[in-house]
Design goal:
- Belongs to the glycosyl hydrolase 51 family.
- Keywords: Carbohydrate metabolism, Glycosidase, Hydrolase.
- Residues 315-506 form the Alpha-L-arabinofuranosidase C-terminal domain.
- A hairpin with a 5-residue loop joins β8 and β9.
- By secondary structure, this protein is of the alpha/beta class.
- Mean pLDDT is 96; it is low at 5-9.
- An eight-stranded parallel β-barrel has the order 4-7-10-11-12-13-14-15, surrounded by six helices. The protein has a seven-stranded antiparallel sheet with strand order 3-18-22-23-29-25-26, covered by helices on one side.
- The relative contact order is 0.16.
- It has helices spanning 64-71, 120-130, 145-156, 162-169, 196-209, 230-238, 277-288, 290-304, 338-353, 385-392, and strands at 2-3, 15-20, 27-28, 34-36, 58-59, 62-63, 77-80, 104-106, 112-114, 133-138, 180-183, 219-226, 254-261, 311-319, 358-363, 374-377, 380-383, 399-402, 405-406, 412-415, 418-421, 423-430, 433-440, 447-454, 458-467, 486-487, 491-494, 497-502, 506-514.
Length: 516
């Protein structure tokens, strides 16, 4: 949200704002709603992949219920095979007849042995079933430039080249379209413990040999910083531009960073479902800090690329809690509560407000790991509150952003000396409609929001809310719909002024029709 000169808030009004419908902002790329599937815990095996011989309904080994559920989200892209796993993954181990593929040890996640049943062909088949763009993460940490070059050729070249012939030997005649290719992952940590200047040299090499073949055009994503390490971003930008350049070198098209939300310390992040009010508010303060960090990386990039030709990518984000009791600590399995959904929705608002520079984001992760969309238990599957937050926000995909400008100071809650806004909002327009997203972070009080919609007439508000009596509420296999969307009452439109009554700890969307 952007600010107008403010006055004292009207009593009982948590947000008083203006949206100018005739002054659209940058397009909100659908790829800001991307997802992430790593060989970690039960994300791939038992999550997406059960094998062709499984009693669980599947298409070529990929479980049908998961695909059908995720298609409801219109997933725009899916990142694979990692994560940290990507920098130990050698793609040739995962192609060819399944019986001939070598077994490998997943040293990063649980120290388990896997048989490479799910490899390149299986992932690309999954992307086809989901109708989503593949985001391949290349191995810079332990791989070679030749591996990068060969994998891209294997995936995307259509003539009689060596890698195209090998692909055909493995049963795939035509090349695939690959949208995004990651140059490394967390090189400052699990991807090699490198300095920024060390990685920059490797990234230049790998990006050079991740070539465009035929009509396929890769968006190369250079692995970037942890949180607010702006020096890392500057080092990467210096590889492609000088201060004030208007035409950066076309070496990579995006630079990434990672940011996770938790209430405690890195060693004790807190429980997903058992938390105090203080821990709840600490979580929201941390989640809202993503705005500062996006703005910081964007400012660094603006100095080297003022026309924003190179995009910023947040290709790992989400909540990270202590694992559920009794589960493998290396599998990162956690429950997903209403609190997690609210963390997601305030991220969405930040993404929308920074859509000029931020072009790609991937929540970690899709199934059974960290802030998942879905949880599975054998043949059973449930949708999480975060799933519903994504589904309710799909109307923002590729829409024109509409800045929400405050005209009075909004309500805040003090969190150890930091004033945390209790309401977050964003809006967009597409296909003759306006979609307004509203989040009430206050877990103990309802909030009233008033937004003046100016510049064009609107009508027929349709409101949906995701809420629960307790922000720790979550869905289980015995109660799969404990937290689910429902119609929202208490919404009025009078003279172009939208007024919404939000329950405590709630996310709502209001869709309005634009006058033709």
């Amino acid at each position: 949200m952007t600010d107008l000169p403010t006055t004292a808030p009207e009593k009982d009004l948590a947000l008083d704002a203006v949206v100018d419908l005739d002054v659209p902002g940058p397009t909100i790329s659908r790829h800001l709603y991307g997802h992430f599937a790593e060989h970690l815990g039960r994300c791939i095996y038992e999550g997406f992949w059960v094998g062709e011989d499984s009693d669980i309904p599947n298409v070529g080994g990929i479980r049908t219920d998961v695909v059908e559920a995720l298609r409801e989200l219109a997933i725009p892209n899916l990142r694979w095979p990692g994560g940290c796993f990507a920098d130990t993954y050698h793609w040739r181990d995962g192609v060819g007849p399944a019986a001939d593929r070598p077994r490998i040890v997943n040293t990063h996640w649980g120290d388990v042995v896997e048989d490479n049943a799910f490899g390149t062909h299986e992932f690309m088949a999954l992307c086809d079933l989901l109708d989503t763009a593949p985001y391949i993460s290349g191995n810079v940490g332990s791989g070679t430039v030749q591996e990068t070059a060969d994998w891209v050729e294997y995936l995307t070249r259509g003539d009689d080249s060596p890698m195209a012939r090998l692909r055909r030997e493995h049963g795939r005649d035509e090349p695939w379209g690959v949208s995004f290719f990651g140059i490394g992952n967390e090189p400052w940590g699990c991807g090699g413990n490198l300095r920024a200047d060390q990685f920059a040299s490797l990234a230049r090499q790998h990006a050079t040999y991740a070539r465009d073949h035929g009509g396929n055009k890769l968006v190369r994503v250079a692995a970037g910083a942890s949180d607010d390490d702006y020096a890392w971003t500057e080092t990467l930008m210096q590889q492609v531009a000088k201060l004030g350049d208007t035409e950066p070198r076309d070496l990579w098209q995006m630079v990434s960073f990672h940011f996770y939300t938790f209430a405690g310390t890195w060693g004790d992040k807190g429980s997903a479902t058992r938390f105090s009010r203080d821990e709840y508010w600490a979580t929201m303060r941390k989640a809202l800090d993503v705005r500062r960090i996006i703005a910081g990386h964007s400012a660094v990039m603006d100095a080297y690329d003022p026309q924003a030709r190179i995009g910023l990518a947040l290709d790992e984000w989400g909540t990270w809690w202590n694992v559920e009791p009794g589960t493998n600590p290396g599998f990162l399995y956690q429950q997903n509560a209403m609190r997690d959904a609210l963390v997601a929705t305030v991220h969405f608002d930040a993404f929308h407000d920074h859509a000029r520079r931020l072009r790609l984001a991937n929540i970690a992760q899709t199934v059974n790991v960290l802030q998942s969309m879905l949880l599975t238990d054998g043949a059973r599957m449930i949708k999480t509150p975060t799933f519903h937050a994504f589904a309710m926000s799909a109307g923002h995909h590729d829409a024109a952003g509409l800045p929400v400008r405050e005209r009075a100071a909004r309500a805040t809650h003090d969190v150890d000396g930091t004033a945390v806004g209790t309401v977050s909002a964003s809006a967009s327009t597409k296909d003759g409609a306006v979609l307004v997203s509203l989040t009430n972070l206050d877990p103990d009080a309802a909030s009233t929001v008033r937004i003046a919609l100016r510049g064009q007439a609107v009508s027929d508000p349709v409101a949906t809310v995701l809420a629960a009596d307790d922000p720790a509420a979550h869905n289980t296999f015995d109660a799969p719909d404990a937290v689910a969307p429902r119609p929202l009452d208490g919404v009025t439109l009078d003279g172009g002024v939208l007024t919404v009554q939000l329950p405590p700890a709630a996310f709502a969307t209001v869709r309005l029709t634009l006058a033709s």
